[in-house]
Amino acid sequence: MSEARPAAKRILVIAPHADDETLGAGGTIARHAAEGDAVTVAVVTGHGEGGPHPLWPREVWTRVRAEAARATAILGVAELVFEEIPAARVAEEPPWSLNRVTGAIVERVRPQVVYVPFPFDLHKDHREIFHSLSVAWRASSEVGRGIEEIYCYETQSETHWNAAYLEAGFLPNCWVDISEHLGTKLEAAACYESQMRPEPDARSTGALEALARWRGSQVAVAAAEAFVAIRLLR
Length: 234
Hints:
By secondary structure, the protein is an alpha/beta fold. The protein has a single domain (10-232), classed as 3-Layer(aba) Sandwich (Rossmann fold). 38% of the residues lie in helices and 20% in strands. The protein has seven helices and seven strands, in the order E-H-E-H-E-H-E-H-H-E-E-H-H-E. A seven-stranded mixed β-sheet has the order 3-2-1-4-5-7-6, sandwiched between helices. Helix 1 runs parallel beside helix 2 (58-75) and helix 6 runs antiparallel to helix 7 (205-218). The two termini are 26 Å apart.
């Protein structure tokens, strides 16, 4: 008799901006999907619901969200959600307002596994969103107690640009073997034509592959994504 397959899990990937989910956890998302887990990707920032954004016209989000839809479909994401906290202005959002948005995502999805940005990424949006999620996953709430695993992913062009030795650097303590899913990750990343750059830029597909190969070499597999585990409940 074959072993019973573990029940499918609800996976929530929080992306401050569309493409963070693919850069940081695209191979892991594809593996979750291939193994039957239900993956929700929630992109927290956008143009905003008020007047003009001070940096980018609304057309920028129309394009990148279409790219996100194509990329996440390739990864096998079951649900893609967009919120409207103004990008590059998350720190200006009242904490209660940001917490309400992120908390509502967690409340609705009720995930067992959560992937979030690293709290010391250079981008302030990433930092603020991490800290907001840390309110939502508190074990003092019913929803928080249901979250068994929480991981921080590394986002090339953000995670490794913080102030060395002045802040905590990204030192992974767990790895996911994505050897069978690296091609899917790179195909998804290529959908972000407005965000990716030619080599040797950190946001090139070549750099993504190089990092995956390097992380894989650390644990003797062909390719891996590395994470900092915040919670592991067994």
